[in-house]
Specification:
The complex is a heterotrimer of chains A (184), B (482) and C (151). With 184 residues, chain A is mainly alpha-helical. Helices cover 64% and strands 3% of the residues of chain A. Classes of the chains: A mainly alpha (184), B alpha+beta (482), C alpha/beta (151).
Chain lengths: 184, 482, 151
C-alpha cells in the first residue's frame, strides 16, 4: 500500500538534535533555526562524537562563519519556498536582506563563492524541486502548481522546468510513474 | 450470366417443389374423402339390412303369434300359445330396435307409428279372439268375424311392412346412386394429377442435371484460377521478403552510418575547440579563421548526421502501437517547445483530440516538428498564432488520400499565420533535405518535414501542405480511423 | 563548500573521451578526484570490491564492451551498498525512448557527449554542483533527474 508522506524538516532536525544531545548528556539550548548553544564545557572528542552521530542523519556541524551564513541563506530560502503559500516573486532580495541583516550584494557574493552557484539558481532549483514533489505527491495539475508558486503562466513553469532539468514536466511525471510501477 | 441461369433454376425448383407438396396434399385429401365415402356406403347397406331383418322378424313374430293362436283355438292345447305369449316382448324389442334405427328417417318413423298402431290393434284382436274362443257360449260366427278382422289387420301389417322394406331398399338404392356419382370421378382425377406431376418432375430433373454439369465446369475453372493465384502469391511473397530484407539492411546501414560517423566527427570538433581555446603564439589570425571554418563545417556535418539519425530512427520495425491520448502528446510537444513559444509570444490553440493507437514517441516528434516549423517560419514582427483541429472525413473527398472512397480518416490540421510558401513547392517540402530558404536565413537541415512524412506513413496515413506566400501555411495529417 | 574532494569515476572504453574528461575536471574549480575504468566488467569489479572507495558521482558510457552501460546501471541500482551513488549516463546520442529508459532504470543524469570542450567543462561543473546541492540541502535524490542534450 502506498502512503504519501510530507516532512517538516525543521521539527525533524530539532528532534534528532535533542535526541543526540540528550544521549550525550549535554546541557543545551535550541535557539534559532540552525543554532544550538551548548551550555557547558565541550571537548574536542565530544565534538567529534556529536558530529559523527549527527552525520548519520545527514546533519553537519558547520564550521566557518561564512558557511554559517550561507547555510542560513539556504535555510531562509527553503523556508520561504516551502512554507509560504504564495511566494513573493521579486522581493526575494528584500526578504533576505531583512531576515539576515546584510546587503543583498554581500550575500550574493558570499553565496556564489562558497557554493559556486548563484542565489537565483539556488532558488530556481528549490522551486523546481517543490514542483517535482507537488507533481508526484499531491497530483496537482501544472496550472494549479504554477499558480501556487507564483509563475506568470504554465508555459513559464514548463519552460523553467525544462531549462533546469532538461525534461518536460510530463516526461518527468511519466518517468517517476514508470519507476514506481512494479517490475514487469 | 451462368449464375443467373442457375439461380433461376433454383427458384423454379423451389416453386416446383412447393407445387408437388400441394399436389400430394390434394391427392391425399381426395383419397381420404373417397375412403370415408366408401365407409359410409358400407354402413348404410348394413343399416338397411338390419332394418329389413328387423321388420321381417317382426312379421314372422306376428305370424307365429297368429299361428299359435289358431293352433290353440283348434286343439285347445295351451302349448300352442307359447309363441303368442312370448310375442309381445319380442315385438316390443323389435320396435325399440327399429325406432333407434330410424332415428334419422322421418318417413320411417311415421311408418313405424302406423305399424305400431296396427300391431297394437292386432294384439287387441288376438285378445278378443281368445276371449271369444274361451267363452263356450260365444257364437262361432262372432269368433269368425273377429278372426277375419284379425286377418284383415294382419294383411295390413304385412303390407305396411313390405312397403317399409321397399321404401328402405329404394332409399338405399338412391343413396348408392349418389355415392357412385360422387366417387366415380376421383380415381381418374388422381391418376391424371399423378401423371402430370410425373411430367413436371422429369422436366425438373433434366434441368437440374444440366445445371450441375455447368457448375462443375465453373468449379474447374475456379480451381485453375486458384492455383494460378497461389503461384502468383508465392512470387509476390518472395519479392516481399527480398524487399523487407533490403529495407532492414538499409535501415541498419543508415543507423550505423549515422551513429558511427558521429564519433570521429565529435572528436574533430572537440580537439579543434581545445586548440582554439589555447593561446598558441604561432597562430595567425588567418589560421584562427581556418579553424573556425573547420569548426563550422564540422558542426554542419554534425547536424546533418543528427537529422539522418533521427530519420533512420523513425522507422516502423519493432515499434509498439498503443492507445494514446493525443491531447497529452500535444501538451508534451508544447512543453518541449516552451522556450520558443514564450520567446515569440506564440498562441497555440487546439481542439479536443481523440485517443487512438499510435507509436507515441513518433507522434510526439510529429507534433514537435510541425509546431517547430510553424514557429520558425513566422512573420518577423507578428506573434505566431497556431491552431490545431481534428475532424473525421471521408477519403473520397481528399485526393491526397489513396484509399477506398468510403474509408474514414482523422484529419489533423495545423494552421499558422507565418510567412507561408509558394504552392508549387507544396510536395517538395517533404523531400529529404529539401529547403526553400538559404541556409543562412533559417537554420535547419530540411529533414523535419521528411521525418513527419515518414512517421505519418508508418501510421498508414497521408500528409499534405497547403499555403501561400505571406498567408501562412496549413499542414493536414490524415490518419485512418480503425 | 566542500571539506573533501568529490570522488568521480568514469567508465568509458574510448581513450580520447577519457582524456577529455580528465582534462575537463582539472580545469574546473571544484575539488575532485577522478578515476577512470575502461569497460563494464572493470567497473563492476571495482565497485564490488570489499573496501572500494565509492565515488560520489559515476559517469557511465552506454556502449562498452563486456558489459554495457544499461547492464551496469541495473546491477548498481540493485546492489545495496551502491544504491546511493549518483549516476550520470555519459553517451553519444540516443533516441528519446532510450533516454527515458535510462531514467526509468535509475539514472540520475543523462548527457550527450558535447562536441566542444568548453561546453563539456560547463556541463560537468553544472552536474557536480547540482549533485552537491542535492547532497547538502536535504533534497530528495530520487527526484534528481537531469537531461542535457542540446549544444
Amino acid at each position: 500500500m502506498k502512503l504519501n508522506i510530507k516532512y517538516n524538516i525543521n521539527s525533524l532536525c530539532k528532534k534528532i538534535l535533542r535526541e543526540q544531545l540528550d544521549k550525550m548528556g549535554l546541557k543545551y539550548d535550541l535557539t534559532t533555526f540552525g543554532e544550538v548553544e551548548i551550555r557547558q564545557h565541550f571537548s574536542v572528542e565530544e565534538y567529534k562524537q556529536l558530529n559523527t552521530a549527527l552525520s548519520e542523519y545527514g546533519i553537519e556541524i558547520v564550521e566557518s562563519q561564512k558557511s554559517v551564513l550561507v547555510q542560513k541563506i539556504k535555510d531562509v530560502i527553503i523556508e520561504m519556498i516551502y512554507l509560504e503559500e504564495k511566494l513573493p516573486a521579486s522581493k526575494i532580495s528584500h526578504y533576505l536582506t531583512e531576515k539576515l541583516n546584510h546587503s543583498y550584494g554581500y550575500l550574493a557574493n558570499l553565496f556564489s563563492e562558497v557554493t559556486y552557484t548563484s542565489i537565483e539558481n539556488f532558488i530556481i532549483l528549490q522551486k523546481i524541486e517543490l514542483v517535482k514533489e507537488l507533481i508526484i505527491s499531491e497530483k496537482l495539475t501544472l496550472t494549479e502548481i504554477s499558480i501556487k508558486l507564483n509563475y506568470s503562466s504554465v508555459a513559464h513553469l514548463s519552460n523553467q522546468f525544462k531549462k533546469t532539468t532538461g525534461l518536460t514536466p510530463s516526461m518527468f511525471q511519466r518517468i517517476i510513474e514508470k519507476r514506481n510501477r512494479p517490475a514487469q | 450470366m451462368n449464375l443467373r441461369v442457375i439461380s433461376n433454376s433454383t427458384v423454379l425448383f423451389r416453386s416446383a417443389f412447393i407445387f408437388f407438396i400441394f399436389i400430394l396434399l390434394f391427392i391425399s385429401s381426395i383419397i381420404y374423402k373417397h375412403s370415408l365415402s366408401v365407409n359410409d356406403s358400407e354402413a348404410r347397406v348394413i343399416h338397411s339390412y338390419r332394418v329389413r331383418i328387423e321388420l321381417e322378424q317382426l312379421l314372422s313374430c306376428m305370424i307365429d303369434a297368429e299361428t299359435g293362436q289358431r293352433g290353440y283355438i283348434i286343439t285347445r292345447d295351451t302349448v300352442f300359445l307359447q309363441p303368442y305369449n312370448g310375442a309381445g316382448r319380442k315385438i316390443r324389442r323389435s320396435f325399440n330396435t327399429l325406432r333407434s334405427l330410424a332415428y334419422d328417417n322421418q318417413q320411417q318413423q311415421l311408418d313405424l307409428v302406423v305399424l305400431y298402431r296396427l300391431v297394437i290393434r292386432r294384439f287387441e284382436s288376438f285378445a278378443d279372439v281368445l276371449k271369444l274362443s274361451n267363452d263356450q257360449q260365444v257364437l262361432t260366427s262372432l269368433r269368425k268375424k273377429e278372426m277375419l278382422n284379425g286377418k284383415y289387420l294382419m294383411d295390413k301389417i304385412r303390407l305396411q311392412i313390405h312397403t317399409m322394406i321397399d321404401q328402405e331398399l329404394l332409399s338405399l338404392q338412391q343413396k348408392e346412386k349418389e355415392h357412385q356419382e360422387e366417387i366415380s370421378f376421383t380415381p381418374l382425377f388422381t391418376l391424371l394429377l399423378m401423371f402430370f406431376s410425373l411430367l413436371v418432375f422429369i422436366f425438373l430433373y433434366y434441368r437440374i442435371n444440366k445445371n450441375v454439369a455447368k457448375l462443375r465446369i465453373l468449379n474447374n475453372h475456379l480451381l485453375i484460377a486458384k492455383k494460378e493465384q497461389q503461384h502468383n502469391n508465392a512470387i509476390v511473397e518472395g519479392k516481399n521478403r527480398e524487399l523487407e530484407r533490403s529495407n532492414i539492411e538499409l535501415a541498419s546501414f543508415n543507423h550505423m552510418a549515422s551513429h558511427d560517423l558521429q564519433e570521429p566527427l565529435r572528436k574533430i570538433q572537440t580537439f579543434i575547440s581545445r586548440i582554439q581555446m589555447k593561446e598558441i603564439p604561432g597562430i595567425s589570425e588567418t589560421d584562427r579563421d581556418y579553424f573556425s571554418k573547420i569548426q563550422s563545417s564540422a558542426n554542419r556535418m554534425q547536424k546533418l548526421i543528427d537529422d539522418l539519425l533521427l530519420f533512420s530512427r523513425a522507422n516502423k520495425a519493432e515499434k509498439v502501437f498503443e492507445l494514446t491520448d493525443l491531447n497529452l502528446v500535444f501538451e508534451n510537444a508544447k512543453q518541449e517547445l516552451a522556450q520558443t513559444i514564450e520567446e515569440k509570444n506564440a498562441v497555440i490553440q487546439s481542439a479536443h483530440l481523440p485517443t487512438i493507437p499510435v507509436i507515441s514517441f513518433q507522434f510526439q516528434q510529429l507534433f514537435i516538428n510541425l509546431l517547430s516549423n510553424s514557429l520558425k517560419y513566422c512573420k518577423p514582427s507578428v506573434a505566431p498564432s497556431i491552431q490545431l483541429t481534428c475532424e473525421i472525413v471521408i477519403a473520397g473527398n481528399f485526393p491526397v488520400i489513396k484509399a477506398d472512397i468510403e474509408k474514414k480518416y482523422y484529419q489533423l490540421s495545423i494552421t499558422d499565420n507565418g510567412s507561408g510558401f509558394e504552392p508549387q513547392y507544396a510536395e517538395n517540402l517533404f523531400t529529404l533535405f529539401y529547403r526553400l530558404h538559404h541556409k543562412d536565413e533559417y537554420s535547419g537541415t530540411g529533414i523535419g518535414l521528411s521525418i513527419c512524412k515518414k512517421i505519418v506513413e508508418n501510421h498508414d496515413g497521408f500528409i499534405e501542405a497547403i499555403g501561400e506566400i505571406n498567408k501562412g501555411a496549413t499542414f493536414n495529417v490524415y490518419i485512418p480511423v480503425l | 563548500m566542500q571539506h573533501d574532494p568529490l570522488h568521480i569515476l568514469l567508465a568509458d572504453d574510448d581513450e580520447d573521451d577519457r582524456l577529455f574528461f580528465k582534462d575537463a575536471f582539472e580545469e574546473i574549480k571544484i575539488k575532485t578526484v577522478v578515476h577512470t575504468v575502461n569497460d563494464g566488467l572493470q567497473l563492476m569489479n571495482y565497485l564490488n570490491m570489499e573496501n572500494a572507495l565509492l565515488p560520489h558521482v559515476l559517469f557511465l558510457d552506454l556502449n562498452m564492451p563486456f558489459k554495457n552501460g544499461l547492464e551496469c546501471l541495473y546491477e548498481i541500482r540493485n546492489t545495496e551498498k551502491l544504491k546511493d551513488i549518483s549516476i550520470v549516463i555519459y553517451s553519444t546520442s540516443a533516441s528519446e525512448e532510450d533516454i527515458e529508459e535510462t531514467f526509468v532504470k535509475g539514472a540520475n543524469v543523462y548527457i550527450k557527449k558535447p562536441n566542444d570542450f568548453l561546453t563539456l567543462k560547463k556541463m560537468l561543473a553544472h552536474i557536480i554542483t547540482i549533485n552537491w546541492q542535492y547532497d547538502t540541502c536535504g533534497l530528495n535524490k530520487e527526484n534528481f533527474l537531469l537531461s542535457i542534450q542540446s549544444q
